[in-house]
Amino acid sequence: MYTRGKDDTVFVRMNKKGDKSAGKVEPDNGMGEEWLRVQGSVAQISVGSNAAWGVKGDGTVSVRIGITNASPQGQEWITVDGEPMRHVSCSNQGHVWAIDKKDKIWYRKGANNEYALGQCWKTIPGSLKVTTRTCSRSLTSLHNRIPTDDHGRTVRRLGHQRRPAGLLQSEHVG
Question: Which of 22, 94, 141, 153 maximizes the CB count within 10 A of its CB?
Fold first, then answer.
């Protein structure tokens, strides 16, 4: 589990063994005992099963590689060439999508759990905006970043299992 602080610092949630960090927090394994500061900073972050993708304030995209159960903080950030991005999202299968500062949609060709970096960015027809919606659940307020089209309709991706780029379909939610 990763998060970022108000000053764009990055933290990973860790379990402890005695007085030392002792591995990745799994969803079925409790909440962990401590937050460990990870070198680097990002304005927005998305985490898959073995990599974390982040967008810095200037739109530069970086990927944190080497995330494992034994080393949940990973090894290093690698800057990925491409257009300045506004938002990046990765799946547990290692597929990566992004929205640039002109609302164009991109996916990272070849990115998967075996090769986190992939080969290059490819555009997907259409454009998206990323909006923030807030929903309250019991005492916790969650901020969800939702992709929407030019008309404010929520967008979902179809066909992503066989074709990582998928197809976009708008739907009215409300």
Answer: 94
